[in-house]
């Protein structure tokens, strides 16, 4: 619930309070005008007779405040109240009215303190309230939660992190350090994709590969680019989470002290750009380059699920980036083993209509699944791909679709959520299925069992989805679905 504090309540303040009182959340007005206080109380607005420039007035406010509105008619009063607001509620959004005929110096002083300054000519109450809504409060809530953490913060990416996850974690660590919190990028698994390694090596990004039990060394936990402990990371499922920022739509509710889940943007990096901008944090070349590359990768160079917010974030980052460094990251050399793995995926392909399924035997690099799924999508007539392989007792799948209305993320959820986990975007997704007792079978038998399991569940899920029956990837094949038999997830 949004909590708002109004300091001073002149003519402009009264208009704003009337607008705020009709909005969800709480409003507390502190004003030295006894008549105005009585009027507000008669309108059922919580109001206190108090001097808005007295430190004791601010100290008496026990609740945490999201928004402070400074709105006396006297410019000097507004300047003093704004200073106190910033001191007592450093994470709140401060909207300050300049007052009646303010001196130039006073106006500049108020402007330097407040997040937004308004003059009488600009005071349209409804418009101002909209501007200080959820988008303005998110960064301050994030900073408040980070400041409340007593010790070091672990910013945990999903397993085998991709550029979007790495860049988002790097930016969140930067935000945490601005409030005096030590933060470290952490991950489980391996970083094998050549572009991911290039990002880390070229930008000299420090990450910690976690082992079981290491997470106990941290006092705070943040998840970026995924939203549930124990799913696509190796944290215990009951791990309490302080901060969660992701752009993948979850199938079930998620919990954290601070949650920002917005699936209407193409990359988590885009969300972190918003925080850096709104908190006024200077973006250095390393962070800017990582974030821009994260956005480019997750949106496939703005061809996949890109929004206007992604374009805006990229435009903001561009002046801070080094284009030569971006080029070095984007065009790394590919190992012979990766090429051989992709060749095996091509050899093992099985095509039904416009859907291709393949497997990689002796999988060593999980990132090779995503690369193979991308490459196989270029085969003529293929619109949907699924490539799977086994590493350390877990089946990993990577799915892609192009030019079709089939939602591959929902399809993998439908297919594998009951025996593992699956999901992602409409055109790119991944899944994980622990083998459990199946892993005790002989290798040849296990390979056949896994193949039958994956293929049957995948095609059954496709067959059951309404988006695949009439307008899905099978529509152009002249038959129906019954006859057709996470960016680097």
From TrEMBL:
Region (Disordered): 467-489
Domain RCK N-terminal: 5-100
InterPro entries: DDH_dom (IPR001667), DHH_sf (IPR038763), DHHA1_dom (IPR003156), NAD(P)-bd_dom_sf (IPR036291), Oligoribo/pAp-PDE_c-di-AMP_PDE (IPR051319), RCK_N (IPR003148)
Pfam families: DHH (PF01368), DHHA1 (PF02272), TrkA_N (PF02254)
Domain named DHHA1: residues: 354-449
GO molecular function: nucleic acid binding
GO biological process: potassium ion transport
Protein name from the UniProt record: Phosphoesterase RecJ domain-containing protein
């Amino acid at each position: 619930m949004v909590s708002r504090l109004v300091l001073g309540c002149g003519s402009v303040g009264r208009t704003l309070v009337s607008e705020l009182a009709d909005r969800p959340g709480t409003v507390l007005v502190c004003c030295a005008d006894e008549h105005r206080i009585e009027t507000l109380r008669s309108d059922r607005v919580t109001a206190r007779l108090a001097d808005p420039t007295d430190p004791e007035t601010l100290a008496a406010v026990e609740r945490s405040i999201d928004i402070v509105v400074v709105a006396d008619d006297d410019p000097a009063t507004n300047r003093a109240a704004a200073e106190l607001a910033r001191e007592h509620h450093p994470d709140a959004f401060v909207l300050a009215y300049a007052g009646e005929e303010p001196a130039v110096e006073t106006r500049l002083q108020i402007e330097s303190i407040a997040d937004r300054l308004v003059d009488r000519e600009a005071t349209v109450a409804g418009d101002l309230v909209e501007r200080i809504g959820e988008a303005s409060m998110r960064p301050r809530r994030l900073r408040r939660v980070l400041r409340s953490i007593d010790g070091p913060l672990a910013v945990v990416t999903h397993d085998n992190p991709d550029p979007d996850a790495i860049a988002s974690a790097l930016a969140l660590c930067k935000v945490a350090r601005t409030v005096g919190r030590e933060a470290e990028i952490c991950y489980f698994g391996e970083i094998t994709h050549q572009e991911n390694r290039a990002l880390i090596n070229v930008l000299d990004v420090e990450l910690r590969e976690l082992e079981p039990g290491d997470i106990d060394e941290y006092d705070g936990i943040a998840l970026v680019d995924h939203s549930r402990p124990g799913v696509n990371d190796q944290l215990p499922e009951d791990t309490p989470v302080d901060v969660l920022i992701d752009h993948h739509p979850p199938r079930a509710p998620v919990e954290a002290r601070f949650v920002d889940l917005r699936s209407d943007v193409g990359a988590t990096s885009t969300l972190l750009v918003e925080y850096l901008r709104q908190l006024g944090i200077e973006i250095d070349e390393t962070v800017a380059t990582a974030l821009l590359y994260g956005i480019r990768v997750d949106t496939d160079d703005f061809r996949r699920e890109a929004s206007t917010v992604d374009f805006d974030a990229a435009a903001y980052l561009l002046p801070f980036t080094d284009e030569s460094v971006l080029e070095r990251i984007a065009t790394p050399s590919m190992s012979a083993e990766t090429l051989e793995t992709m060749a095996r995926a091509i050899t093992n392909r099985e095509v039904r209509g416009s859907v291709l399924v393949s497997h990689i035997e002796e999988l060593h690099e999980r990132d090779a699944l995503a690369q193979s799924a991308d490459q196989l999508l270029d085969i003529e007539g293929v619109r949907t791909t699924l490539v799977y392989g086994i590493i350390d007792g877990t089946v990993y799948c990577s799915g892609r679709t192009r030019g079709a209305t089939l939602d591959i993320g929902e399809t993998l959820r439908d297919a594998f959520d009951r025996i593992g986990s699956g999901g992602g975007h409409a055109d790119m997704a991944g899944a994980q299925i622990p083998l459990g007792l199946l892993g005790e079978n002989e290798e040849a038998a296990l390979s056949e069992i896994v193949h039958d399991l994956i293929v049957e569940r995948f095609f059954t899920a496709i067959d059951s989805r309404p988006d695949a029956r009439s307008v899905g990837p099978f529509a152009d094949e002249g038959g129906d679905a019954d006859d057709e038999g996470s960016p680097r997830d």
